[in-house]
Amino acid sequence: MLSKHPSVFNVRRSSVAVNDRAWDYDVFQQSEQELIHHAIDIFDERGLFSRYSIPMSTFCNFLTEIKNGYNSEAPYHNSYHAFDVLHVSYLLMTKCGADEYLESFNVLSILVAALAHDLGHDGYNNAFHQNTNSDHAVTYNGISILENYSAAYLFRILRKKECNIFARLSDEEMTKMRSRLIDLILDTDAKNHY
């Protein structure tokens, strides 16, 4: 998988570039390679690679699987949307000072959930799946259908050894991380906020 992104190891910045720290950073003006670099820079700046012993090759494999898990034909719920949500989550933590109150474990879970929150989204909404009694609706019992699908998709990616960015977590930490990620992704169902 890494052969698709060989320059990741050749061109690195020491932190997120100043221009990439702005609210007007436009993911749609970036190449896929630039978005991968941006994600790497965000995780690196937050100290997540060293704190959680995440190998760069594993992270790149993980990002590639995340990117490939989005429907490139979808007008909105595509990989650009995932990287946009990652960027905005990063800004909310840094510009608004939220990261002063968050442990690195929480920062890691927020950033991963931002990337994965719409994985596998098919372009329809939960009401459509419920009303058509789709396989997704049956599998997830009509409850936060697409969000449950995305969370499950994330954990299928993480089961792959070459993509498991959480491999160095203890069983207890992984149980906690899984619970956090599921909660964060399920909380993106707008129906839960009315």
3D structure, described in words:
This protein is mostly helical and 194 residues long. 53% of the residues lie in helices and 0% in strands. It contains nine helices and no strands. The protein has helices at residues 32-45, 48-51, 56-68, 79-95, 104-116, 126-132, 135-139, 145-158, 171-186. Helix 1 (32-45) runs parallel beside helix 4 (79-95), helix 4 runs antiparallel to helix 5 (104-116) and helix 5 (104-116) packs across helix 9. The longest helix is centred in the middle third of the chain and has 17 residues, at 79-95. Residues 1-14 have low confidence and may be disordered.
Give the CA-CA distance, first to last residue. 42 Å
Summing up helix and strand content along with how strands pair, one would put the structural category as: mainly alpha
| Low-confidence runs | 1-14
Please report the number of helical segments: 9
Major beta sheet summary: none
- Along the chain, the helix and strand elements come as HHHHHHHHH
Average per-residue pLDDT, rounded, comes to: 90
Shape: globular
- Number of DSSP-assigned strands: 0
Beta fraction: under 5%
Backbone CA Rg: 16 Å
Helix content: 40-55%
